[in-house]
Amino acid sequence: MASKRSDSKKVSRRKFLVKGGLGTIGVVAIGAYLFRSPIRRQILGVVNSLEAPYLDNIDQPMVWFEVTSDNNILLHSPKMEMGQGTFTGIAQMAAEELSVSMDQIQVVHAASSTGNVDSFATGGSTSISGLWKPLRELSAMLRVMLLKEAALKMNVGVDQLSVEDGIISGNGKTLTYAQAAEGVENWEVPDVPVLKDAKDYKYIGQPVARVDLDAKVYGDPIFGMDAEMPDMLYGAVVRPSKIGSIFVSADTSAAENMPGVIKIIVEDDFVGVVANSMIEAERAKDAINVTWDSYDNLNTEEIVKMMTVGNGKSSVIQKNGDSFGNQDEVVTLEFRSPIGAHAQIEPNGVVAFVDGDTATIKISTQVVGLTRKEVAKRLDLDVEKVNVIPTYLGGGFGRRLHTPHAVQAAIMSKAVGKPVKYFFSRKEEFQHDMFRPPTHHVVKGKLNDQGYLDGLEHQFVSGDVATDSALIPNALTNFLGADVGAIRGGFIQYTAIPNFKAECWHVALPFATSWWRSLGLLANTFAMESFMDEMALKANKNAVDFRLHQIADEPIDIRLKNVIKAAAEKANYSEEVKDGRAMGFAASIDANTPCAQVAEVSIVDSEIVVHKVTIAMDPGLAVNPDQIRAQCEGCIIMGMSAVLYEQMFVEDGELTPTIYGPYQMALMKNAPKEIDVVLLQGKDTPGAVGEPPLGPIGAAIANAVRRLTGERLTELPLKISKKA
Amino acid sequence: MEISLTVNGVLKTVDIADENTPLLWVLRDTLDLKGTKFGCGKAACGACTLHVDGEAVRSCSYPVKFAEGKKVTTIEGLGDRENPHPVQQAWIEEIVPQCGYCQPGFMMATAALLNKVPKPTDEDIDKNIINICRCGTYYRMRKAIHKAADLQAEKLTNDSKEA
């Protein structure tokens, strides 16, 4: 069963760390695993479509598994669970190759002390696709290691052994994995065995229930906000409300003698207070009078003016053929999307304890490695002495790719010599979010005599997404010439059109903008797919046929065509308005996952009502079809919320609103009563799932509205200006 | 000052410096019941929803002094793994949670709704379940709420048969 592969180059690069029995627990730890070198691509088109690999940290041993004395497997996940179902998918993958039942696998977040830290992040819809190969290989290797030990203990040849549910049998004898692991000190490290054939999968491909379901239904304390440490105090940090404020001075006299206050810390531009309770810390914070040197009192109109195609610097990210011939026949439409907030329900929070030359950080984060490095740097600690213990995330969505609050809590902890817990108020969450940048799009197209596009051009401008992020070196962004986050979804996907061009402009805004689930995809697809619909109408063609005709024949194109056909068929796509309802169609490709949606919409009292959304998506091999469906449903509703309701403003230099409600979001009453999901499998490995379904929803709704009212809505959030 | 309240069936007396402290923080920080979540502090998101004398209350904006002598139920007291509440059972069967942070608030709001409206229509649900879920689990939640109503009705029938 453990036949060798010829892949010796990779095998030789593996190192293993194996620990033997810890008390009654048999511990097996498998070490560093390097399977791909970081990919450098010079072509933005490839950056846009690649499925990012799992980037590991090759310098350190990594603990992936523990075999516990009760014959269960503890799997230390380098990827965080933020709702996307990664823990369940990786449990399925590991159970498959380890030949244990799902009940025998417990997934935990790897603390940085185990070494198993993703040196990049949890994000970009890469967790399952990135771990697909390495995790199954590691699991299979662990199985072989356990079988070899069992063979010695049972005095039976390894080839006579079989294993099911973690129980090894052969020659009439049985041994559990735990018994096989017990007391072993020198493990024999095997080559990578041949992995299971897809037809033999027992768990992969099954809609098994989430492994974290019970914890989340019975209210277990699993989130960052629930984390504690003994003798913990509470911190609060003073922040400016106006954009661009520069710290001048702090008058702390009124706060110093307030009840419960332990210490007030002013360090460079950092002003924090530590108190016995969260409420006392907050009250003292409010009593500190900080003088800020304020930036200009900006307003939304000025931000919109800045964020206009033609401003900043640009990069042509895709080009084919020539520019348009006769300019008179060119149709031009402009689109805009607003500033968006993450608005995840669990505020950013952390408990930090700096104890001499070590630090312990409990936090819900998408960036364990970065958090560790930043704390070590600011507090001048050895990075190995900083242990980041991640928790479940109460929503990620890109917000938790930034964790300066871990550094702030560590500063406060160091100042008082005790653990300090600190979290954002909701006002701070809204004012100091790392926002989705606003965008502006100018889309041009020209039809030929047959009523298909002869030319198509997408010019768009965005604020920072990947630019100035600690995760992506600016050198890379500069080298590529465009923000690798902003371009997501910005490419022309109808490459059978003879002439096309996409050009991305970049403007840095005076407030922080960054990663928001799906990055540029939401706004770019809204613009491009709204425009395609308008051109189909102008050409007097069916919107689905119009698209299909202009897609090329590369493998990804075929998959795009297939999801378009599947969505149209499943929804019975029709361009007739029936009983006051119309359908709108849109499609996109994100991270190599094509997705098409049909939205069924009516207008009630000038409000857009989405009754039903049909989605067809091809994420490749579906490790857990139920959780892929859940991601489709969630993306459709989150996307709907963003395109129909959500919008941040800048008023007199302040980001606003600062509370849910005024920051309007989709509620139960707004969610479609029907969501129909069709999953296709156009490739035999898993692909991106957690973001691609956000692409088409904006244009699908806007295109339905166009057919209902005749009005082409070009700005998000979508608002009806005349009654249907 | 001392405040006495019944939490998940157990009488508790807490010594609280400020009687206006929100009930949420007394439960989370003093009584170590972390299932009730902080989301916004302004009763705008519903993550902190629990029951006071059977009524759904947003505990981040409910001074603890008002809970004196009352019965408070949190997600930990709604049901447990051995004996799940019909709402929890339905949530499991429909695999509702994603990140899970807002879910206790939704389950408590749903349990309170079912006590008043045992067989809610979609309109009842739209009108009464007004918490916020960022992951967008509303679609499955609606199915789970209808299922919970059925499970609760079954349970009542079975209980009355046994009685």
From TrEMBL, chain A:
**Does ATP-binding appear among the keywords?**
no
A Pfam match: MoCoBD_2
Looking at the UniProt entry, the stretches that span the membrane are: 16-35
The keyword RNA-binding is assigned to this record: no
* Domain Aldehyde oxidase/xanthine dehydrogenase a/b hammerhead per the UniProt entry, residue ranges: 218-296
Supply the alphabetized keyword list: Membrane, Transmembrane, Transmembrane helix
Report a single Gene Ontology molecular function: oxidoreductase activity
Question: Mind telling me what this protein is named?
Answer: Isoquinoline 1-oxidoreductase beta subunit
The species this protein belongs to is: Maribacter spongiicola
TrEMBL record, chain B:
SUPFAM superfamilies linked: 2Fe-2S ferredoxin-like, CO dehydrogenase ISP C-domain like
What positions does the domain 2Fe-2S ferredoxin-type occupy? 1-78
- Please give the Gene Ontology molecular function terms for this protein: 2 iron, 2 sulfur cluster binding; metal ion binding; oxidoreductase activity
Q: InterPro entries this protein is in?
A: 2Fe-2S-bd, 2Fe-2S-bd_dom_sf, 2Fe-2S_ferredoxin-like_sf, 2Fe-2S_ferredoxin-type, 2Fe2S_fd_BS, Beta-grasp_dom_sf, Diverse_Oxidoreductases
PROSITE patterns attached here? Answer: 2FE2S_FER_1, 2FE2S_FER_2
Task: Name the UniProt key words of this record, in alphabetical order.
Answer: 2Fe-2S, Iron, Iron-sulfur, Metal-binding, Oxidoreductase
- Lyase in keyword set: no
Instruction: Report what the protein is called.
Output: Isoquinoline 1-oxidoreductase alpha subunit
Q: Which species is this record about?
A: Maribacter spongiicola
